[in-house]
Amino acid sequence: MIELNDFSIGFERRELLVNANARINDGELTALLGRNGAGKSTMLRAIAGLNRSYTGTVRLNGLDIREMSPSQLSRNIAFVSTQRTRIPNMRCRDVVAMGRAPYTNWIGNLSADDNAIVEQSLLSVGMAGYADRTLDKMSDGECQRIMIARALAQSTPILVLDEPTSFLDLPNRYELCRLLAQLAHGQGKCVLFSTHELDIALALCDSISLIDTPHLQCLPTPIMKESGIIDRLFSINGPIYQ
After folding, report:
1. Predicted pLDDT of residue 237
2. Is residue 242 part of a domain?
3. Which domain range does residue 139 map to?
4. What b-and-e string marks burial along 81-119, b requiring 16 or more CB atoms within 10 Å of the CB?
5. pTM
6. Is 238 part of a structural domain of the chain?
């Protein structure tokens, strides 16, 4: 579970969120929505412990991330950035194995259990047959699945993704979000991802977190639909859902 208490953050001299309070639950798929420049990536990076320029508190499963060691943090949350990854000659299996780093010795040797987790992570995202292929010879959608598999291999209860559907065509966007829903519902993970895909978020997500600068609104999807906040924020003439 992710909890924000009196959370405020900005970029340069601009306030993005002020005194935000939110709870992102285990076993749910939650979409983070907001207009361009609203601070979605900034917020996610703070939650993942990659941006400490905030006030207030971020808790992961009850633990304040400011009081967590890097090892504790890496065992509680996995982060998938929006960057496309293209590493020539690096096999998918080796990329996914990097997710086991918090559990290996300083040399990085994998145990039999570590290797089993790597294989299961590839299987979970439908990429077991791609284990020996290299990232530079795969599509964007395939590479994104591999990066999610790496995050799964990290064996964390919380998974945070920054615009994972970027660079994908519409069918692959839906397929990837269905995969995230399966991970949340089937494995009980807390899954939070930012997106510009309103239709996908409203169709597949359990909850919506919406940045309405400088406020953060977090509601179950059916209640968010009825609230009218999304229509107002995105200046939509008429409903965007049925």
Report:
1. 53
2. no
3. 2-233
4. bbeebeeeeebbbbbbbebbebbeeeeeeeeeebeebbb
5. 0.90
6. no
